[in-house]
Write a structure and sequence with these properties.
1 helix; 17 strands; elongated; about 5% helix; 2 domains; five-stranded antiparallel sheet; Immunoglobulin-like
Length: about 230
C-alpha cells in the first residue's frame, strides 16, 4: 500500500507524530485531608495475566476535571488503597514498566474506560490484570550499509474515528544511537508502521509489522539514497 506508507512518512516529516509529552504535574501521594467531609476510598489488587501479584505497580486516581491526581503503589501482594476521596466520579488506572497501562473498565487496550462513582464513606474496589506489552527493536542503515545515528523513529497505527481511518502515533518514539539501534516497548497488540525520517535530507522509510502480547519484533531498516 504505497499511498499509506507515503502518508505515514509525510506525518513524520510534518512533525505530527512527535512523542506525547509527559505530565509535569507532581502526583499527590497522600492526598489532602478534608475536615468535615464524608470521604471514601478506592482499593484493589493488580496482578499479571497468570494471577501473580505485581509489586510496585502505580495506580492513579483522578477526577475528570484534573483537579485531583492521586497516586498509590502496590505492595508485595499487589494491593493498594487510596483514601480521602470526595464523593463523585473518579478515573482509575494502573501501570507498570513493560506492561500495558490499563484504565479501569477497559476490555481492551483501546476500549472505553469506566469511571467509578463514589458515595459518601464508600470503599469501591477496582482490580486490574496487566498484560505484558510487545516490543520492537532493530537498527537503521544508510544506502552503504552504515548505521545511521540520531534519527527519530516513531510507531504509527491506523485507528478509526467516527468511521474514518486516521493515522495516529502509538507509544513513545525513540532515537537511534551510534550503532543505529532503537527499541520501543509496552506496545499493545496490533498492526503498526515503523517510520524513520532524516529531515535534513528528506529521506524516509516506513515498514509495516504486527505484534502480540509480550512479543519482541526485530526489524532492520535501510534509508533510501538521497
Amino acid at each position: 500500500m504505497p499511498s499509506l506508507r507515503a502518508a505515514v512518512t509525510a506525518l513524520m516529516l510534518a512533525g505530527l507524530v512527535a512523542s506525547p509529552a509527559t505530565a509535569a504535574q507532581r502526583p499527590d501521594r497522600t492526598g489532602p485531608a478534608r475536615p468535615g467531609s464524608a470521604t471514601g476510598a478506592v482499593h484493589g489488587r493488580v496482578t499479571g495475566p497468570n494471577g501473580v501479584p505485581l509489586r510496585g505497580a502505580e495506580v492513579r486516581v483522578r477526577d475528570p476535571n484534573g483537579r485531583e491526581n492521586r497516586l498509590a503503589t502496590t505492595d508485595e501482594e499487589g494491593h493498594y488503597q487510596v483514601d480521602n476521596l470526595l464523593p463523585g466520579t473518579w478515573n482509575v488506572s494502573a501501570a507498570k514498566g513493560g506492561y500495558i497501562t490499563q484504565q479501569f473498565g477497559q476490555r481492551g487496550p483501546f476500549s472505553a474506560a469506566q469511571p467509578i462513582t463514589l458515595a459518601a464513606r464508600q470503599r469501591a474496589e477496582a482490580n486490574f490484570v496487566l498484560r505484558p506489552g510487545g516490543a520492537v527493536a532493530g537498527r537503521l542503515f544508510d544506502e552503504y550499509g552504515d548505521p545511521v545515528a540520531g534519527t527519530r523513529v516513531q510507531m504509527v497505527q491506523q485507528r478509526y474515528d467516527r468511521g474514518r481511518r486516521q493515522l495516529a502515533p502509538a507509544g513513545v518514539g525513540d532515537q537511534t544511537d551510534d550503532t543505529g539501534a532503537f527499541r520501543m516497548y509496552a506496545l499493545p497488540p496490533g498492526d503498526y508502521y515503523l517510520a524513520a525520517s532524516l529531515r535534513e535530507s528528506l529521506r524516509e522509510r516506513a515498514t509495516r509489522f504486527s505484534i502480540d502480547y509480550g512479543e519482541t519484533v526485530t526489524l532492520s531498516l535501510d534509508l533510501p539514497a538521497p
